[in-house]
Amino acid sequence: MSCPIGCYDCCMKCLGGVPYCSLVATLLCFSGIALFCGCGHQALTETERLIETYFARNLQDYITLAYLIQYFQYVIYGLASFFFLYCIVLLAEGFYTTSAAKQTFGEFRSTLCGRCLSSTFILITYLLAVVWLLVFAFSALPVYFFYNMDATCHTITVLTETPASINQLCIDARQYGLLPWNALPGKACGMTLSTVCKTREFRVTYDLYIAAFAGAGITLLALLTYMVSTTYNFAVLRYLGRKGIGTRC
C-alpha cells in the first residue's frame, strides 16, 4: 500500500517543479513566431507580386523593394532560429529556478552562478521585449496599407453608379514609400483598383499580414510572460540566498 503513496508523492514533487508560467510562455512564443515568420515570409512574396503586376511596369522601379523583401525574408529565417533556441533556453532556466526555489530535489540549492545567470536572462528578455515592441508596431504598417486599399475598394463598390467619382479614388504605392516617385503607374484607381481588390493575391496577402501581426502580438505577450516569470524566480532565488541556503559554484 505504500508504493502508490510513494509514486503519488513523487509525481507531486515532479509537477511542483514544472515552471508552468515559463511553459505557457514557451508555447505562446513558438506559436507567435511560427505565425509571424511563416505568414510574414509568404506575405512579402505576395506583396512583391502585387507591386510588380499592378503598380510598376519597369523592373528598375521596384528593384529596391525586391531587394528589401529578400533581405527581410533572410531576417525572418534568423528570427525563427534564434527564438526557437532562446525559448528552449528560457524554459530550461525556468525549470532550474523553479526547482531551486521550491527545493524539489533534496539538497539542490540556488547557487551564485544560477542567480547571475537568471539576472542575465532577465536583462536579455527585457531588451528583446523592447525591440519586439518596435517589430510589433512595424508589422502594423502593411496591415494599415491593405486596410486602406480594402476600404477604398468598398467605397468604389458603393459608388459604381458615378464613374467620375470612382476614378478619383486611388491607392498610390509611392505615398507609402513602396516605390520611388518616378515609378509608373505607381497607383491604381477606380475600377482597376477594384479589380485588384477582387484578386486572390490581394485577399491572401491581406490575411497573411493580419496573421503575421497577430503572431507578433502573441510573441510580445510571450516575452512579457517570460519577464514576469524570470523576475519572480530571480527574486525568490535572492530571498533564498539571503536566508543563507544558497551556495557558490
TrEMBL record:
Membrane spanning stretches: 74-96, 117-141, 208-228
Pfam families listed in its UniProt record: Myelin_PLP
InterPro entries: Myelin_PLP, Myelin_PLP_CS
Principal place of residence: membrane
Cellular component, GO annotation: myelin sheath; plasma membrane
Membrane topology recorded in Swiss-Prot or TrEMBL: Multi-pass membrane protein
GO biological process, one term: central nervous system myelination
Subcellular location: Membrane
Keyword Transmembrane: yes
Single GO molecular function: structural constituent of myelin sheath
Keywords for this protein: Membrane, Transmembrane, Transmembrane helix
Family: Belongs to the myelin proteolipid protein family.
Protein's name in the database: Proteolipid protein 1a
